[in-house]
Design brief:
It contains 21 helices and two strands. With about 300 residues, the protein is mainly α. The chain folds into two domains: about 1-120, no CATH class; about 135-220 and about 265-290, no CATH class. It has a two-stranded parallel ribbon with strand order 1-2. Helix 5 (about 45-50) packs antiparallel against helix 9, helix 12 (about 155-165) crosses helix 13 (about 180-205) and helix 13 packs across helix 20. The protein is globular and about 55 Å long. The two termini are about 40 Å apart.
Length: about 300
């Protein structure tokens, strides 16, 4: 999926990606694809109809709703026509896939070429991922010589509190439960994943020197301009003027009519976390704080 996205292989991308809200509802974030967005928005009624047919009753509506066995069965039913034909729930899969196939014909006819052109004309293509691991980066590094990876890490206390405020599609399995212990459990799962990723990243850095840069979010907000320069230097590029313009707006929001200061937003969790929560999460994430070295933090670990 990532390989096809980064190489602009539109024909190989799943239909769901064409109508996903991150490509259609956030036009300010994808200004170079405005023509595509205008095109696909005309088909959103059809896409919404297909969404009502998603086989969530059997497959679940989000990660973790169903067992790995059921998820594996769903993946096979969605991709193997012969297997799907003999599936006891074949009708619910057939309705959804049939609707998406009809939608795909419309997208290929009217909109896909617009995305293809916009993507192919860009010298820099960036994708932000929240579920991929460093293990999934290894084959991409082998396949794409020009690939650069920014490994973004955030303080687990900020992550847990942020997830707690999101809807169920984003939260981890413990975030919405009893607050006595579950925030620390959520943090533990996050920290365990990050530690594994850091160790794998270090292995990949030895094999692919200069291809990966670790960035700690909590340090970035202290020196946004410095990190902007570092990241574009890592990419062997000069900093684009529109990025500098964004920086000025975020730093001086009143003067430029921008939003609240980005560092104030990023550090808001400092005011929300309780002493008890802080102690519980730090204890659950001891290995994280041993492995991930911050250059600065104003909360004790």
């Amino acid at each position: 999926m990532l390989f096809n996205l980064l190489t602009c292989n539109v024909d190989a991308l799943p239909t769901e990606s064409f109508v996903h809200r991150f490509f259609t509802q956030y036009s300010l974030e994808f200004l170079t694809t405005n023509k595509y967005i205008q095109c696909v928005m005309k088909l959103m009624i059809r896409a919404s109809e297909c969404n009502t047919l998603i086989p969530s009753s059997y497959c679940g509506s989000r990660f973790g709703n169903k067992s790995e066995e059921v998820l594996a069965d769903c993946r096979r039913a969605m991709t193997d026509e012969t297997y799907r034909g003999n599936h006891p729930n074949s009708s619910i899969f057939d309705r959804y896939i049939g609707c998406m196939n009809n939608l795909r014909e419309l997208l290929d006819d009217k909109c896909a070429s617009l995305w293809q052109t916009s993507c192919s004309n860009r010298p820099l293509r960036a994708v932000k991922l929240v579920r991929s691991t460093m293990d999934s980066m290894a084959p991409l590094l082998r396949a794409l010589p020009n690939l650069r990876i920014i490994h973004l890490i955030r303080d687990p206390r900020a992550v847990v509190l942020s997830r707690h405020g999101f809807d169920a599609s984003v939260r981890g399995m413990f975030s919405g439960l009893d607050q006595n212990l579950t925030l620390s459990r959520e943090a533990y799962l996050y920290c365990r994943t990050v530690v594994t990723d850091v160790r794998r990243r270090r292995e990949l850095e030895a094999i692919y020197p200069g291809k990966i840069i670790p960035v700690i979010y909590d340090d970035v907000v202290r020196d946004v301009k410095g990190y902007i320069r570092n990241v574009y230097k890592f990419l062997d590029m000069s900093v684009p003027e529109d990025v500098l313009c964004w920086y000025r707006k975020s730093r001086y929001p009143k003067h430029y009519g921008g939003r609240l200061n980005s560092s104030a937003i990023a550090n808001r969790w400092h005011e929300l976390i309780t002493i008890r929560q802080n102690k519980q999460i730090v204890a659950a994430c001891k290995e994280f704080f041993d492995v991930v070295k911050y250059t600065w933090t104003n909360l004790r670990v």
